[in-house]
């Protein structure tokens, strides 16, 4: 009766029958009942046993370890009771369930530190280290406890290291604890032992690649290239996946794309991780159109069902859509997510919902952004920040500040650094000087403003014509003003015709960011508007002498699902001749 899946009503009927038959003390019956109940009722069944053997012990420890809800600590309490029991002794299953409870991380840190070495000691005494699955549990628990040295020691002492999950959890542990080199060393060692990483392994490897210091990228890219040259093909797809990420982080999108192209498209060898890595490589290097192109290739691949896009793909693509203003593709992505059997995903996945809000807001579709925000099941600070910033950049300052207040009062969420930036930006874009002063004053009382907050406040003052006050804030703040701060003041000088201070501000901007043409261009425009052509010529000569070039303006337009990019002074667009002819 207690085999297979049982509905709760039927389970209660069977439990009542157990009592009528007076077999509630039977260890096998109790074990089956514990396995069918949720954690708290299961604990009640266990506590009713006077002298349980190992089977009910294992059952309740497993249920408590897997049940969540802060009950993993109770599993450890029962394990301690078991150690002093005369009726039972822990076996390999007991240890694996206890280790799962420790890995859950819900118990107190001191208790975890005490229990884990005890379990490890019992495993050693019981000669269970030959069990690879139990070793995996130890490695996973030590990694979760941030004790990577002990995790590595268990791994190194294993007699059989063919279980891929042991490598996976250790690589992931290295990546999480900031030891990217340790994770990549293990990745290469894994390949040399002819073990093929799975997708979960590659998540850890890519995490290690992402956290690798920039100055170490060349060394590791070289080591991976050398392995690939000597490997006779084994593991090359996984190495190339890592290289896509590494080259992308170093800014070499050409090398990143070359590694991507080495992975055959046929046979499902391009996993979703590969596609995501390539899209991310383009996106983080300011190539949103190319990122969108890769996504479209992914969706039209020979066998798209092998590697369907996941929410990470969609978040990246939505960011690219926001960059180029491609609302058509953004709407398509939104519809795809809803129609792919995951209709509730946009409202339940905070990252995806936030990306949709940002995309719609940057494309000027505020109603859609509001709709996504309103449908979210659980709005966190990041979601509020996205909506506040979206309202700010669309000139809806009053609404943004209302949401800022509601976030604290109705939702009991404390604003973070990005929230204050969004609120100050809302005041700046809508000319709300008084409200901006209030927001900045409030932040000073809550937490020390950072340089970006001072920059937003200076921008607000500059846009409002309070240039002397803006200069005072810039020169007295506890940070060196950055290019954004000086740029905001310089823009204010140009808008409000304060040429007498524009030149000195421009020199400040050039000092902090000598390679940025913005300061030169703004000042040149100011001189030109005042017909000071000699000063314009001097500025241009200074730019040539220092090697500073004006960054070409660019824009995008989406027509029939295709994004067209136009660069000022360039005829690289395939339809440039037609556009010029029409003009």
UniProtKB/TrEMBL annotation:
Any GO BP annotation: RNA modification
Residue stretches of each PPR repeat: 163-197, 271-301, 349-383
Keywords recorded for this protein, A-Z: Repeat
Gene Ontology MF terms: RNA binding
Keyword Transmembrane helix: no
Signal sequence annotation: none
Source taxon at top rank: Eukaryota
Annotated SUPFAM superfamilies: TPR-like
Name the UniProt record assigns to this protein: Pentatricopeptide repeat-containing protein
Annotated organism of origin: Genlisea aurea
């Amino acid at each position: 009766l207690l085999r297979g899946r049982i509905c709760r009503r039927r389970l209660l009927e069977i439990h009542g029958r157990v009592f009528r038959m007076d077999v509630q003390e039977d260890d096998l019956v109790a074990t089956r009942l514990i396995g069918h109940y949720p954690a708290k009722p299961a604990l009640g069944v266990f506590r009713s046993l006077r002298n349980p053997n190992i089977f009910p012990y294992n059952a309740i420890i497993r249920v408590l370890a897997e049940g969540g809800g802060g009950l993993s600590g109770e599993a450890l309490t029962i394990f301690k009771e078991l150690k002093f029991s005369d009726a039972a002794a822990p076996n390999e299953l007991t240890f694996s369930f206890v280790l799962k409870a420790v890995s859950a991380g819900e118990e107190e840190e001191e208790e975890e530190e005490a229990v884990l070495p005890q379990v490890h000691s019992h495993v050693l005494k019981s000669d269970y280290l030959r069990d690879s699955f139990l070793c995996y549990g130890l490695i996973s628990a030590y990694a979760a406890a941030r004790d990577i040295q002990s995790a590595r020691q268990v791994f190194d002492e294993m007699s059989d290291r063919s279980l891929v999950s042991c490598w996976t959890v250790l690589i992931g542990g290295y990546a999480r604890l900031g030891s990217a080199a340790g994770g990549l060393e293990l990745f290469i060692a894994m390949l040399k032992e002819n073990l093929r990483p799975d997708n979960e392994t590659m998540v850890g490897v890519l995490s290690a690649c992402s956290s690798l210091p920039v100055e170490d990228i060349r060394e590791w890219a070289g080591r991976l290239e050398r392995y690939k040259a000597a490997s006779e093909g084994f593991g090359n797809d996984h190495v190339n996946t890592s290289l896509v990420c590494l080259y992308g982080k170093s800014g070499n999108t050409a090398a990143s794309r070359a590694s991507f192209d080495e992975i055959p498209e046929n046979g499902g060898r391009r996993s979703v991780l590969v596609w995501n890595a390539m899209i991310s490589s383009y996106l983080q290097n300011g190539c949103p159109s190319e990122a969108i192109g890769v996504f479209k290739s992914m969706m039209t691949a020979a066998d798209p069902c092998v590697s369907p896009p996941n929410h990470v793909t969609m978040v990246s693509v939505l960011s690219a859509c926001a960059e180029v203003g491609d609302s058509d593709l953004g709407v398509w992505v939104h519809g795809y997510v809803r129609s792919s059997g995951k209709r509730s995903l946009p409202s339940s996945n905070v990252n995806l919902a936030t990306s949709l809000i940002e995309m719609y807001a940057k494309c000027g579709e505020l109603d859609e952004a509001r709709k996504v925000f309103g449908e979210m099941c659980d709005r966190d600070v990041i979601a509020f920040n996205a909506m506040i910033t979206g309202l700010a950049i669309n000139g809806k300052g009053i609404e943004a500040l209302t949401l800022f207040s509601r976030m604290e009062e109705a939702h009991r969420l404390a604003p973070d650094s990005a929230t204050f930036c969004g609120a100050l930006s809302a005041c700046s874009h809508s000319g709300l000087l008084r409200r901006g002063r209030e927001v900045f004053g409030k932040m000073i009382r809550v937490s020390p403003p950072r340089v970006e907050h001072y920059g937003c406040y200076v921008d607000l003052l500059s846009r409002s014509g309070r240039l002397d006050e803006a200069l005072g804030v810039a020169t007295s703040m506890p940070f060196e003003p950055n290019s954004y701060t000086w740029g905001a003041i310089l823009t204010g000088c140009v808008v409000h015709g304060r040429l007498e201070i524009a030149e000195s501000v421009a020199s400040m901007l050039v000092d902090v960011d000598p390679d940025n043409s913005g300061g030169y261009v703004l000042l040149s425009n100011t001189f030109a508007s005042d017909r000071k052509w000699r000063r314009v010529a001097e500025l241009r000569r200074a730019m040539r002498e220092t090697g500073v070039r004006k960054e070409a303006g660019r824009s995008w337009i989406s027509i029939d699902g295709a994004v067209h990019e136009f660069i000022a002074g360039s005829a690289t667009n395939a339809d440039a001749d037609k556009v010029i002819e029409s003009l």
